[in-house]
Amino acid sequence: MSEQTPAPTDEQTSEHEQLQGESPSPESQAGASESDLPEWARKELTKVRGEAASYRTRLRDAESKLSEAKSPEEFEAALAEVKAKDAELERSVLVGSVARRFELPDDLASRLRGETPEELESDAKALQMLLAPKAPPSLGGGLNPSDEDDGEMDPRKLARRTRRV
């Protein structure tokens, strides 16, 4: 009764190398510098990482479907399905990047039409023209008027008020 030890996976090998004192991976170095990034960049990085994770899971699903294919017809059907999903994902990434570039809300991003980046950009420009311009930040400067002020300036009242304070 001999037991075979399982072959180490890539993750186990990389952990072993790190424990042996190998240089840290670029991912761990990138994680250390992530705290130096501004908030908007961290949010965008988190979003991109989420998208990448979903792509990896879809790739694993596609690989498992392809490995289970037994005949050339099944292989072709699985390949066509993967190509269709890939084209759909590439389009959604392209539409999302064009929508962010032109600051379109997510509701309007799904309405972009066109196949090429140029067509999508021209459609995004047209949609952007229809949107109401964003309100500028508050341009009020100076002091805010108080409720105590009745609109008239009485020097005697002003002098009495400043003596008490």
UniProtKB/TrEMBL annotation:
It comes from the Bacteria. This is Scaffolding protein. Residues 39-50, 58-73 have a biased composition (Basic and acidic residues). It comes from Streptomyces yokosukanensis. Residues 1-11, 20-32 have a biased composition (Polar residues). Residues 1-73, 113-165 are annotated as: Disordered.
